[in-house]
Design brief:
The protein is about 50% helix and about 5% strand. It has about 90 residues and is mainly alpha-helical.
């Protein structure tokens, strides 16, 4: 079983950190991810949407040291997370 599955069975919450891999994912996202997240326009928003849609992850840390970070976070919060079906379809494409 995966770590997330084990955590769920044990009733342990999982918190994500470095959702953008410290910026390394920016400008390197697979097209399948961009296509799946629809209205989100930046790579940061796409990454945040992926992490917040990951089954088993209950919380993730995000940067807010710049106004742009806050704007990306708020834009992502205005969109529903991916459904389990959408998330699984995305994993099959990537």
């Amino acid at each position: 079983m995966t770590t997330l599955e084990a955590a769920e069975r044990l009733g342990v919450s999982v918190m994500g950190s470095a959702s953008l891999l410290h910026g390394r994912w920016l400008n390197q996202l697979p097209d399948a991810l961009r296509d799946q997240v629809g209205s989100l326009s930046t790579d940061a928003q796409c990454c945040l949407q992926f992490v917040r849609s990951t089954p088993g992850v209950t919380t993730t840390l995000t940067g807010m040291s710049h106004r742009r970070h806050v704007e990306d976070n708020l834009a992502t919060a205005r969109v529903e997370p991916l459904t389990l079906e959408q998330f699984r379809a995305l994993l099959r494409k990537c």
